[in-house]
Amino acid sequence: MKRKIKRAVLYIFRKPLNLGLLILFVSTSFLLLNVALTKWDTKDSIDDESRTLEESEASKLVVPEGIRDWEYYVHPEYNFSVYVPRLLVKREYDDSGDYLFFVRFEENRFSENGGVAVGVSDRTPEEEETKIREILGAEFPGLNPEKETVKLTSGNAIRLDYRAGDVNEPRTIVLVRNGEYTYSISTVPEQIDNVLAGFVMLE
Asked: What is the pLDDT of residue 140?
């Protein structure tokens, strides 16, 4: 009889304990799930804001028919955007010495288009032109690129064309001034117009 009473007492005390553990487990699970969903929503919100910025800027551009599958690159600190071919390898450099910022989109075995580079400096376009001529002139003596002034949405720019045979590969460099910075945009001649179609100074 005493054993039955003891078992009954233990059962009474164990049942609330088991129930409490179950409630604690369920509450903790809901809490962790809520935290995970909150983090996911926050990440989605940040991604959506970034995507909205790019889509907002991209919506202002007229995209040439042949480059609908190109990518839209935006640099918010130096306030510019540019179109670049897909599958190129991006490499960014801050304060590299010659440039405050420099980004290269390099060709590789998967890419089908030429590479693109953009350098940002605090030199004037004329000083930047002299710098480029010095650098390439040291490697290719007697090099004299074709020069012309071109009009972009951001204003007049200097265009330098290096022909095949003068350098390892033909190259076009366009120098654009905006505010305190000069932007040096370089790519192969056949795709410079498409690259510049996406070059916009952001507000």
From this structure: 77
Low-confidence ranges of the chain (pLDDT < 50): 1-24, 26, 31, 33, 35-55, 57-59
Residue owning tokens 């959506």: 48
- What lies within 8 Å, CB to CB, of 133 at 6+ separation is 143, 145
CA distance 111 to 107: 6
Positive or negative torsion for Cα 183, 187, 189, 194:
negative
Which residues is 77 bridged to in the sheet? none
Sheet holding 80-84, edge to edge: 71-75, 80-84, 200-201
- pLDDT at position 61 is 52
Q: How far apart are CA 179 and CA 189, in angstroms?
A: 27
- Output the CA–CA distances (angstroms, integers) from residue 39 to 30, 33, 44, 45, in the order listed: 14, 10, 9, 10
- Strand partners of residue 120: 101, 183
What is the chain's length? 203
* CA of residue 65 relative to chain centroid, distance: 22
Cα torsion through 56, 57, 58, 61, rounded to 10? 120
| Tens of pLDDT, residues 126-150 | 999 999 999 888 877 778 899 999 9
Cβ neighbourhood burial of 22 (10 Å; 0-12, 13-18, 19+): exposed
pLDDT at 72 (0 to 100):
87
